[in-house]
Design a protein that fits this description.
With 340 residues, this protein is of the alpha/beta class. It is 36% helix and 21% strand. The strands form 4 sheets. A 7-stranded parallel beta sheet has the order 10-11-9-8-14-15-16, with helices on both faces. The chain has a 5-stranded parallel beta sheet with strand order 2-1-3-4-5, with helices on both faces. The protein has a two-stranded antiparallel sheet with strand order 6-7.
């Protein structure tokens, strides 16, 4: 894979080069600040950019945003300050970065630590960028109607910001239970849930096995496990990746809901994201009568997942992220008026 490195610290650049070259990757260019990265990417778009967060002149968030506007390509945030700069990581992911990983470093004996974690991320991104996808079918579950209805959401690249805008537009008394599968690193899931909770009146929490879904509450799948919703609205987390390159998988979530016999008045949503995860699962839900909504191309950072759903006829509605909360509120308001 042809890879560009963006980092202002020479020792860390050397470590990154060693890790990449040891696995057969090619370093096509190096930039020591975000501004230079934007320039270099415009002149030579690589297969992947390893983007640091904290840099002079132009930081990683702004550089990611500019690259995605001018010469879009896969971007992986590689930073030594993951935990202390969680808000910046979410901003970068909202701007189009695919994922985040800690910068490899020299250990006490001179060996490099963290290199395998970086290489593993690169393998997954390579598969995603090629739209590689193998679905895992959830086991059939006994049918059972569940109250409240569900709002099931799948998202990936650009998802954190889209989720914040969507959830931020919902009232605290929103009548549906919300379940979310966002492609994110497992070490970062708790911070994502906390950050989203601070952006909305909806209660947002990390999903736990055995927990029940509730109206006006959102549960987000951990980044290293699949989330299934069993009959009765009970959460089940399963270890991945299995045959899926997406963990958590939106298709696995959607399949569990379809096979669990949930209310056909429920809604499935696909937000911005690379690849096609969730599109087939959404089509299956539409075919059994669900309302299905895809984010439009104009407001998506990457129109992969929602675009795939639109192309295969899985989406009943296509709308901007700014209009989506209003559409959902109207849908459920009409539903409950009809049920009275």
């Amino acid at each position: 894979m042809r890879i560009g490195i963006v980092n202002d610290k020479a020792p860390l650049v050397d470590i990154l080069k060693k890790v990449l070259l040891s696995d057969g990757h090619e370093v096509v260019w190096i930039a020591h600040n975000g501004e230079r990265a934007v320039e270099k990417c415009s002149n030579d778009v690589p297969d992947l950019v390893l983007m640091d967060l904290i840099m002079p002149v132009l930081d990683g968030v702004s550089a990611t945003r500019e690259i995605m506007k001018k010469s879009p390509c896969p971007i992986l945030i590689v930073t030594s300050s993951v935990e202390s700069n969680s808000s910046k990581v979410f901003e970068a992911m909202g701007a189009g970065a695919l994922d985040v990983v800690a910068t490899p470093k020299n250990g006490p004996d001179g060996e490099i630590t963290g290199g395998q974690a970086l290489l593993a991320k690169i393998v997954v991104i390579g598969k995603l960028h090629g739209n590689g996808r193998v679905r895992e079918h959830a086991k059939p579950l006994a049918k059972e109607r569940v109250i409240p209805p569900l709002l099931a959401i799948g998202s990936s690249t650009g998802g954190p910001s889209a989720l914040a805008e969507l959830l931020g537009g919902l009232p605290a008394d929103f009548p549906a239970a919300i379940v979310i599968a966002q492609h994110v690193d497992g070490h970062f899931s708790e911070n994502l849930a906390l950050w989203l909770d601070s952006q909305t009146e909806i209660k947002v929490a990390l999903a736990r096995s055995g927990r029940s879904v509730q109206a006006g509450h959102a549960l987000i799948a951990p980044g290293d496990q699949h989330m299934l919703i069993k009959p009765g609205g009970i959460v089940e987390l399963t270890d991945g990746p299995g045959k899926n390159i997406y963990v958590p998988s939106v298709d696995v979530l959607f399949d569990s809901i379809r096979l669990g016999g949930f209310s056909k008045h429920s809604v499935a949503v696909l937000l911005t994201g690379m690849g096609a995860d969730g599109a087939r699962g959404m089509l299956d839900l539409r075919n059994i009568g669900w309302m299905t909504i895809a984010q439009d191309k104009e407001s998506s950072v990457v129109w992969g997942m929602p675009g795939s759903a639109v192309k295969m006829g899985a989406a009943r509605e296509v709308c901007s992220i700014g209009d989506m909360a209003g559409l959902l509120v109207r849908h459920f308001k009409k539903l409950f008026q009809e049920l009275k």
